[in-house]
Design a protein that fits this description.
The chain is an alpha+beta fold and 173 residues long. Helices cover 14% and strands 20% of the residues. A hairpin with a 5-residue loop joins strand 4 (107-111) and strand 5.
Length: 173
């Protein structure tokens, strides 16, 4: 009986340990700040999910919030050179997976108007914002420029149209 109880305790400890090192989109249960403790995506061309003051959003390989532009359409970027100076395209890696843990949107690539490539989620071209100074910032949320509105992207590849919560730190994690 003691062996069974000991094994049960080890299993609970093992599950708790797994919860503290979760991957894309699953914040650990012991996280008092409400932000995901997962490590940033490892390389260019990868995306991950992080919890910010907007809730769960896609982030690039550096942990920066990823945005879409409503002037774009799935598979088509309307962001030209001047736009890309403020809203850099999220570059694909050497090989871009079509799915990633915690992300339900299909991942792909499309051309930018400046001749480069950008990652897509659910077909939408993806960008970061130069005024997001650190991972978790969402200062681009709701900005109206370059013919549309910029929104953070959900793990489903949709625009997150809510405003940042006032209770959460703007920096998120």
């Amino acid at each position: 009986m003691r062996v069974i109880a000991a094994l049960g305790s080890l299993a609970v400890l093992g599950l708790a340990a797994c919860g503290s090192t979760t991957t894309a989109g699953s914040p650990p249960s012991s996280n008092p700040g409400g932000a995901s403790a997962s490590s940033p995506a490892a390389a260019a061309g990868t995306l991950a999910v992080r919890t910010t003051s907007l809730g769960p959003v896609l982030v690039d390989a550096r942990g920066r919030t990823v945005y879409l532009l409503t002037a774009d359409s799935p598979g088509h970027s309307s962001c030209a050179s001047s736009c890309l100076r403020y809203w850099p395209a999220v570059p694909p890696g050497a090989s871009t997976p079509t799915s990633l843990p915690g992300i339900t949107a299909t991942i792909g690539t499309t051309a930018t108007m400046a001749g480069g490539k950008t990652l897509t989620a659910g077909g939408w071209p993806l960008y970061t914002f130069v005024q997001d100074s650190k991972p978790g910032d969402v200062t681009g949320q709701g900005v109206k420029s370059f013919g549309g509105t910029w929104y953070a992207v959900s793990p489903a590849g949709k625009a997150v149209t809510t405003a940042p919560s006032s209770s959460g730190a703007r920096g998120g994690y």
